[in-house]
């Protein structure tokens, strides 16, 4: 059997296994069984508590979602940031702490606004929702970083959260928070952003940890199931690559 045939069979098996995993997790949820827990991520463990502290101090939290859009290679990273918004939205509404959410791509604006709107509606406070909580700052990475940093530096912020697609320009946002002594949580995938954030905060999630943020903070089955399926798919792909490498040697 040639390499192409093996690759086709391997992909078919991967799809079948992934489908079985999704079905199995759906059945587990239907029967009320718990899904596998994920390991704690220090970058996000204190965020819910920081929302409470912001309420006690009369301040708010800033969430920077970066300048990535919902198309192309940055889509998954941007969606991970939106999951964090969704996770924090309920706590923000419960404690009456309207967050400041800054975005650097127009496609993120309506989705972040929708997450906040739904949180207010679920609490019966639809009239208290304000679209201006989510702010489109600028369409370029540098312009966005400078504008988001200005939001932090303006004061009234208790905690600075950065999760999404960033470049090295994210250092501007992090520096603004550091100057005020704010607790800062960050998650990034690009080497430039990781290098810029590493010296500023020890609450940094890198690479795949970024995509686990929503699952950890919400505990929702859909996010936990997605993580489990991704882990299994990565294992299958690694085995396929190994088999193909052995066959070609």
Write the layout of secondary structure elements.
Elements: H1 3-30, H2 47-57, E1 60-66, H3 75-94, E2 100-103, H4 108-122, E3 134-136, H5 141-153, E4 157-165, H6 170-179, E5 184-188, H7 191-197, E6 204-206, H8 213-218, H9 221-248
Parallel strand pairs: 1-2, 1-4, 2-3, 4-5, 5-6
What does it look like?
This protein has helices spanning 3-30, 47-57, 75-94, 108-122, 141-153, 170-179, 191-197, 213-218, 221-248, and strands at 60-66, 100-103, 134-136, 157-165, 184-188, 204-206. Helix 1 runs antiparallel to helix 9, helix 3 runs parallel beside helix 4 (108-122) and helix 5 (141-153) runs parallel beside helix 6 (170-179). Strand 5, helix 7 (191-197) and strand 6 (204-206) form a beta-alpha-beta unit. The chain is 55% helix and 12% strand. The protein is α/β, with parallel strands linked by helices and 249 residues long. The protein has two domains: 3-34 and 227-248; 47-218, 3-Layer(aba) Sandwich (Rossmann fold), CATH 3.40.50.
Strand content: 5-15%
Shape: globular
**How far is the N terminus from the C terminus?**
15 Å
For the record, the CATH class of the largest domain is: Alpha Beta
- Low-pLDDT segments: none
Strand order of the largest sheet: 3-2-1-4-5-6
Features:
Rossmann fold, 6 strands, alpha/beta, globular, 249 residues
Briefly summarize what is shown.
By secondary structure, this protein is α/β, with parallel strands linked by helices.
